[in-house]
């Protein structure tokens, strides 16, 4: 296979836990079944581990279409419901231009230029109140 072309993501997408953050690295195209499995894996892992952030590195993705944009937005919405924040890192300029041209706003997502910057962004954000945990009242 020629490395100049994006590789399809056909099986499981690896989800790594780095402290309080889940790191997902996308390479190539994401197919329907893989996207559904990734969403389910992330939701289950967030719920089971109580992590506070999801960092999705898309630096290996050449093209973001409306399908991938919808998948990213759905992951962010699910993570938010489970009291975690989502950051997308490594977006190429051409991908950003395409998202704007498609009119995709990716609600619920923050962006960072690199994985390192994404980790810093998640570390800076205030913790979210977990379901069932005591709320902190403002004075």
UniProtKB/TrEMBL annotation:
Domain STAS as annotated: residue spans: 11-122
InterPro entries the UniProt entry points to: Bact_StressResp_Reg (IPR051932), STAS_dom (IPR002645), STAS_dom_sf (IPR036513)
Domain of life: Bacteria
PROSITE patterns the UniProt entry points to: STAS
UniProt xrefs under SUPFAM superfamilies: SpoIIaa-like
Membrane-traversing stretches: none
PANTHER family per record: RSBT ANTAGONIST PROTEIN RSBS, RSBT ANTAGONIST PROTEIN RSBS-RELATED
Protein name: Anti-anti-sigma factor
Taxonomic source organism: Streptomyces variegatus
